[in-house]
Amino acid sequence: MTVLVTGVAGFIGFHTAQALLARGETVIGIDNVNDYYDPQLKRDRLDQLGGDFIFDYCDFSDFTALTKVLRRHSFDRIVHLGAQAGVGYSLKDPHSYVRSNLAGHLNLLEIARTADGLRHMVYASSSSVYGANTKLPFAVDDRADNPVSLYAATKRADELMSESYAHLFAIPLTGLRFFTVYGPWGRPDMAIWRFTERILKGIPIELYNAGRMRRDFTYIDDIVGGVLLALDCPHGGEHRVYNLGNSRSEDLAHLVELIESATGKAAIRELLPMQPGDVRETYADIAATTAALGFVPTTSIETGIPKFVDWFRNYTGL
User: Fold this and answer.
1) What single-letter DSSP state applies at residue 129?
2) To 10 degrees, the CA torsion angle through 288, 290, 292, 293?
3) Can you give the residue ranges of every domain in the chain?
4) Helices (H) and strands (E) in the chain, counts
5) Residues 151, 277: contact at Cβ < 8 Å?
């Protein structure tokens, strides 16, 4: 029982590989360990993975390199979590999103199409596909044709490409729309990491839209649980999409208060206007996910934020 995990040195990829290994799977992990954020964090994650874990350095947007690496391995499932992440960075380097999220996703679809005996491919989409949608909570059958960032547009394009491949080639494909994932070994470009670091250092935190923001913060263990539930539920040659979120829209001010409590330090707040490409609120409707997969998140931010802060202080020494 072997699973190919792309983006294995990334936040969600690392935790997913760890969970697969813990239940006795063999994991083939690929990653190009790029410098979008500190590669040392990615290498430190990889160092935590033992057992039946095989790692290959590979940029999956390079189809020649990808096929050369995968020719050495056999696998019956794919968890495609590698991508160029981040909304703001897509304004600075749009071509990296085209390479990774469009060409790279197409490459994985081609691998899935030609692999012998492939049972299922699960891939990462994003809550950002809901874009300018004002209906709350966001349900998977809501319109998703108003992206407000290039990142969101590439993730929606991934879903549409997957729909066509499932239709044409009867490949079982499942897309997962993640909602603001956080937890130990998280990403330095995300708000919870930035806020924690700056509060501990006494540096002002930036609150966009003057802090009038709400997010569906989802703890990493709940996300990984949803990934595994989806992976274990192939559904013939169809394409399906599910929300993975905590199904609670939390006020940003409450998040900051929880970090202040966990660090024992007060935040210095800098109120700023809304960022280009950002949305005011996210909120996952997970009814369809629960009905189909049995997905039930269990970790509130009141529990998850202190866990992240404890890990962060141990890892960084702050």
Assistant:
1) G
2) 140
3) 2-182+217-246+284-298
4) 11, 13
5) yes
d(CA 262, CA 208): 22
Q: Stretch 140-163: mean pLDDT, rounded?
A: 95
Location of structure tokens 């909304």: 87
Q: Is 242 exposed, middle or buried (0-12, 13-18, 19+ CB in 10 A)?
A: buried
Whether the model clears a pTM of 0.85, i.e. scores above it, the answer is yes
What pLDDT digit, counting tens, does each position of 196-240 carry? Answer: 999 999 999 999 888 889 999 999 999 999 999 999 999 888 999
Question: Over the stretch 110-138, which tens digit does the pLDDT of each residue have?
Answer: 999 999 899 999 999 999 999 988 899 99
What's the one-letter identity of residue 290?
A: T
Catalytic sites, residue numbers: 151
Q: Report which secondary-structure segment, H or E, holds 156.
A: helix 150-169
CATH number of the structural domain 2-182+217-246+284-298:
3.40.50.720
